[in-house]
Please model this.
Amino acid sequence: MSEIVRVFKTFVAYVKRPDLYPELGRKIIKNTVNRNNAFKGKEKTNLWAAERAVTQQKAVSELFNVHKLEFETDFNEILTIAKKRETECPIKMGGAGALELIYYACEFTKAQNVVETGVAYGWSSLAALLSLKKRNGALFSSDMPYLAQDGDQYVGYIVPENFKNSWKLFRFADKESLPKIFADCAEFHVVHYDSDKSYNGRMWAYEELYAHLKKGGIFISDDIGDNSAFQDFCENNSIEATIIEHEKKYIGAFIK
Model:
């Protein structure tokens, strides 16, 4: 799909969804007036992250006192089926990410309520739900539809049907989804951020999510090397974060 066709299809899809007009307006501004916002402070933060980065296994060991990662072994059958579902999905979305980090964060906090932004195939959702199901907990997810690909129906495609009664999916942009989620549940044991990549979008969401994170809860943000939002947020709030290098990208995590 050419870029022009993709942009046109996306615009037409937005026009057909009045509930998404606020996000359409924000996207127009983000891609015109604030075009460089996505990369603000990128070089600074990549140097900062590279100096501190550890492996996912070391991060899980240091943060959660788990020294042997048995996630893939324990859930081999479910994960194998999920991988097959991903290959069968007719549209292309984001990859799996650091699943063990998410799962053991939920185990460490004995999570009852988890909030995530960004779902795609549903890998991060599945990792959280595998823990939450043990305690009849709930996952609250925010994800924009894949408008250009007509992909709304495929969001969370790999999540098994028998897990979906523990999952509430809000299909709006974060600025519309998060207030709805917070009205439903005020506090969370784990936050996982993987949506709006812009500096301003991240800073807004980080503040909102942090305010609703329980003391002792875990905050995780993917792709922190895109710009300096995560670093700036941590420095502004005197937070010592753990930085994980995973699949040539950086993830940030900390305990509140």
About this structure: The mean pLDDT is 92.
